[in-house]
Specification:
The protein is an alpha+beta fold. The chain has a single domain, classed as 2-Layer Sandwich (Alpha-Beta Plaits). Helices cover 36% and strands 34% of the residues. The chain has 4 helices and 4 strands; from the N terminus they run E-H-H-E-E-H-H-E.
Length: 95
Amino acid sequence: MSAYIVAVVRILDPERFKLYGAQLGDLSARHGGEPLVRGLVEEFLEGTGTPGERVVVTRFPDAAAARGYIASAEYKAAHALREGAAEVVMRLVAG
């Protein structure tokens, strides 16, 4: 069953965040990930959020592949670059 990583991102330091993105490159693809959505939240239809939030949705073949991506040494190295550059909440959703 497919699994999805849904990330809500608020970028605090665009230059440092670019370094994080460049470090990730095609890492999710190497773990079977396929990007589905990557964009700025246009409007809050229900509830509240923070202006400037971005949402990233990546589909993986299964939850194990998604967890493998997050647990990889390459991801952990990139994650260190992201510290202080963005606030990120990631969710793993099975579908």
